[in-house]
Write the structure tokens for this entry.
Amino acid sequence: MTIITKLAIAASLATALTSVSIAQDNLKGLVVGFSQIGSESGWRAAETSVTKAQAEERGIDLKFADAQQKQENQIKAIRGFIAQGVDAIMVAPVVATGWEDVLTEAKEAEIPVILLDRGVDAPEDLYLTSVASDQVKEGRVAGQWLVDAVGDADCKVVELQGTVGSTPAINRKQGFEEAIAGHANITIARSQTGDFTRSKGKEVMEGFIKAENGGKDICAVYAHNDDMAVGAIQAIKDAGLKPGTDIKVVSIDAVPDIFAAMVNGEANATVELTPNMAGPAFDALSAYLADGTEPAKFIITESKLYTPADNPQGEYDTRKGLGY
Amino acid sequence: MRRLRLDRLANPQLLALVGVLAINWLLFPSFFHVTWQDGRFFGSFIDVLNRGAPVAILAIGMTGVIATKGVDLSVGAIMAVCGAVAATMVVAGYPAPIAIIAALAVGLACGLWNGFLVAVLDIQPIVATLVLMVAGRGIAQLITEGSIVTFNDPSLIFVGTGSFLGFPMAAVIAVVLMVLVTLLVRRTAIGLFIQAIGVNRAAASLAGIHSRMLLMLVYALSGLCAAIAGIVVAADIRGADANNSGLWLELDAILAVVIGGTSLLGGRFSIPMAVVGALIIQAMNTGILVSGFPPEFNLVVKAGMIILILLLQSPYAALPFKRRPAASNKTASS
Amino acid sequence: MIDKGERRMADSQYVLEARGVIKIFGSQTALDSVDFGLRRGEVHALLGENGAGKSTLIKILTGAYQPDGGQVLVDGAPVTLDNPLHAQTHGIGTVYQEVNLLPNRSVAENLYLGHQPTRFGLVDHRKMERDARVLLTRYGLDLDPGSELGSHSVAVQQIVAIARAVELSGKVLILDEPTASLDRNEVERLFEVIGDLKRAGLAIIFITHFLDQVFAISDRVTVLRNGRLVETQVLDALSRTDVVRLMLGKDIAFSGATDLEPENPTTDVLLQFSGYGRKNGVAPFDLTIHKGEVIGVAGLLGSGRTEMARIMFGADPADQGSLRVNDKPANVRNTTDAITLGFGFCPEDRKAEGILGDLSVRENIIIALQGKLGWFKALNRDEQLEIAGRFGESMDIRAASLDMPVKLLSGGNQQKVILSRWLATDPAFLILDEPTRGIDVGAHAEIVRTINRLRDDGMAMVVISSELDEVVAYSSRIVVMRDRKMVAELRGKNINPGVIVQAIANNPDEATP
């Protein structure tokens, strides 16, 4: 798929995802620098293409810089943006620390900085706002779905954690546990790390199935991301069970392949981590530039629940074009 | 080695494997419980064979490299590249055999590149293969455009998830490869030459051994093995994950070779024992999964077990079943 | 000759002394009761061929090794030197062939590294550079102390290293082959510095294998051979021939000439090297070798003996001249070409270039033959055992098992293994570089017998050796190397080791003593 068609699809999706109700003509012709981490995952690629589409739609001239997972490259890129005198800067910071100097330089140059999807350890007055999802809430939404889905029936859950010690793994675990707390019929029987990858997700699920009476005792699997869930679905099938029916599958991210599984009835629910961080960012920037409205320091994106009732085929088709 | 001797079976690798499997069995009594399901064996022990296969395949190639006193850090990245090649080609409509051959060819080319750097340009192996370790994953990401390329081609999927006589295809491939490569190096003089180069390259060259050709061969073989592992892993998850496929597996492969008794200083090597080493590592992984330890302990448990196994292999561990020659006598070097 | 009487008299003069020092490695005696005395204000050359024990003695004098017997004395008092740093506190400093300073730091930092002048607890850079400038001027160096050491020539770096060693130790300076990588002008400059230091009362030990340099600056010379002291002598009393004679064997016969083996014009010519040579290796040489003939090669260490062998064998291929084998043009671009032509080569450094230490005796014996057969015509285990067993027996290799690692064998048995390795390839031409060095007497004799037997069986050989009486005994011609050139080809009757020594020393006018 070419970049052009990708952008076109992304643009149409962006329109669908956000209602650009207020006129944002004041952004037209602005130059905004965007320092992206790199291409670490499909979601990251989708975020990049959605950001480009969002900018195009508003007539923003987006200067894109790929940092290849290195903070020094990001700092270099931001200094470059400052030197070019851009109107605003967006950063998806690769790490949390070490930003104070360069953010101060941007502030002195009176260029507003917006953080995307990750926070930094720096004084809050150094950036305009931070747009990110609430990972605890994501876990909570997933847990709530399960609570609603099983009702009063007993349910043994196995959990596929993200990378041990990583923030999303900790938060998504916490949110899920919060949601099922007080529902004694739902218990987490086993919990292991699948490193956020498909193959580890499959391997760990295989182990869980063997350990839980050939999988017959497992009522649901909760995966911290969709990739692990896709791996787990394959493991369930290999064990001769029906994913989605014999074992419920709930996960987070809403990448295209989980919708493909939903179409086949093999996945039950996913919580979206939207790749559209730029939309809310631009909205906040527009309001700020128009009349100096200080946006909230932390803009939380929506954590939307998708189930097979939400036209998974359509979601698959639109998302497939985003570079996931 | 032609007659099966009991004392050969009592080597530290096989004992360690038996030990780890026994621990698994204690922690999880139905570890060896194998059932027949959908025309294949099913059980935790089968999982060990299946999941251990990619590292075992890498270890087969890595053994030759390490025996020449080298190391190949790029195998994980080559896995990602070759998986990506195979996946994008079947998605683009090429038949699976063509895609597989193309991926193998790419792996071979990567191995030859490493061999060229090491044998011809005389770059240290750790540096030479670091080039592809870093660049390879980037190339794989370029091929997949950063996403997981999912495919549904049944013949390609069969390579990773099919079965042969009830055994998982990946394990069958690993065993066949092990037998073929072992025959290749033991039935020809290649194995002896590899050892000679690893022990003393200067002396081997003076004895008329083409060290360059052999180095090219071992690195090419390592690249080819990495390609096979990459295809197997991609086929297993029905998708090429450029970011994660084979990530850090080079270290597992090196560990498997070392557990298998091949010294990083080169010289004597054993391919079957490296495969046993891979099985030991996987038996630990699977054991941790079924035992129900919290994931925070994974690495600690693994590290502890590995230290124990390596200690058992140390010449200082006075094992009753193993006779060691007295400490090598030092000769004067004045 | 210095006898015990003179030594006792000179006791107080010795700044540094070794008395009856013994050092044993495994089964080998590297130093056997060696006496060595160094006086204030002298340059004392320490000479000897490879394996003579020079470096072992130096390592004991600098505390890198501990002697297994005997004593080290500084200013007449026995001391125990724990390590080179400790030796430094006793006033003993060393400069090695490779300058081991930090090339990317300044000259001043290199001079004072580890004890920089400090001010309020911080390095006083200004004082350090000022001191450095004064110090360097004393050594005739006018350069910026703040400049990077690596930006200067090796000679300057060498002098900086000497300055540092003298500053730190101040009594004894040991120069271990300091001139090996210097050109002529640089050597002269270094010698001026050494001369100044000597006049300033420093005691200097000078190790080199360039005879000219020994005669240029040394006052006395001590010669070691096979771990034993051969002689310590005032240099003025010695001729060049004397020195070479001492190095190669004190009891070399200068009379009682032997006839060399008859040249064998009846047999065919096997090899003709014409104008054969290699840049930075050996100057072009001409040499014809018949079948059934041994060519002895004599010369001091560094004379180009080993280089000649490596060129012949293609390990460092020739870049000029031509070779005919059996009267047909031949091209030796690498060792494989040489082996295909039926050449074999036993290198001098058995451990580094000869044996495959961790591999078995069996594998070590068949490796060259297998290399010749290629990858796919593998000898099976029975064939290997048969071959290894055959040579193990005929060469009398003493190994507990043919499957034991060759590194566990004694030096003599290792040498027999390497000889067997080549004999297994059925060679027409063997190059042996110091085949009897560092091996026990019994094995020594067996290897000489083997050389004779192979010659009588019709094999052509080039044997490099410092054992001149042996060379005379089995060679039909003797090639003499000096300064990487073939300088003489001795043939015919009335050859004795003395003649060879004279040829090596380049003193045709000197009368035999």
Residues 14-22 of chain A have pLDDT under 50 and may be disordered. DSSP finds eleven helices and twelve strands in chain A. Chain A touches chain B through 40 residues (CB under 8 Å).
